[in-house]
Amino acid sequence: MSTPLYQPVDKILLPPPNAEMFTTACDYCVVACGYKVYRWPAQGPSGGPKAKDNAFGVDFPTGAFG
Hints:
Number of strands: 2
Protein name: Arsenite oxidase subunit AioA/Iodate reductase subunit IdrA 3Fe-4S cluster domain-containing protein
Distance between the termini: 40 Å
Strand order of the largest sheet: 1-2
Domain Arsenite oxidase subunit AioA/Iodate reductase subunit IdrA 3Fe-4S cluster: 26-61
Order of helices and strands: EE
Oligomer: single chain
Number of helices: 0
Pfam families: Rieske_3
Structural class: mainly beta
Shape: extended
GO molecular function: iron-sulfur cluster binding
InterPro entries: AioA/IdrA_3Fe-4S (IPR041632)
């Protein structure tokens, strides 16, 4: 049996507090709603789950959405 190409992950990297943040928009539609992009060096450390350790300033996990 072959291995699937996509392997889902159960975690994601958080941007560190010093990550560069900029706003951009998708190039594929005319609505142009913006979204924030966080960029930091690939070899640099990622942020942590505590609010003081990530660029969002939020403790993770945040709980259920309601």
